[in-house]
Amino acid sequence: MAVKVLVPTALQQFTDNKATLQCSGNNITELLDSLEKSCPGIKARLCDEKGEPRRFLNLYVNSEDIRFLDGTKTPLKDGDEVSIVPAVAGG
């Protein structure tokens, strides 16, 4: 199963400067583990010590925020697109 992962510029240092990756996983947790295997060190930037996505990071599956789905248990299927989007703040 292939899931397309869109990686923001700030994290591309872990992906050999690739903005798009193909990973696998039945849910977000498995996808993050797969991403860590192919890009060592990236999961520490994405997740806290409990394995949950960091507060300043938003994850979307096909443009739907996982916080409004099943969080890290959100199921994935072949062809899904997961976007990693850092939160932006300003004033």
TrEMBL record:
Protein known as? MoaD/ThiS family protein
The record ties this protein, via SUPFAM superfamilies, to: MoaD/ThiS
List the InterPro entries hit by this protein, alphabetically.
Beta-grasp_dom_sf, Mopterin_synth/thiamin_S_b, Sulfur_Carrier/Prot_Modifier, ThiS/MoaD-like
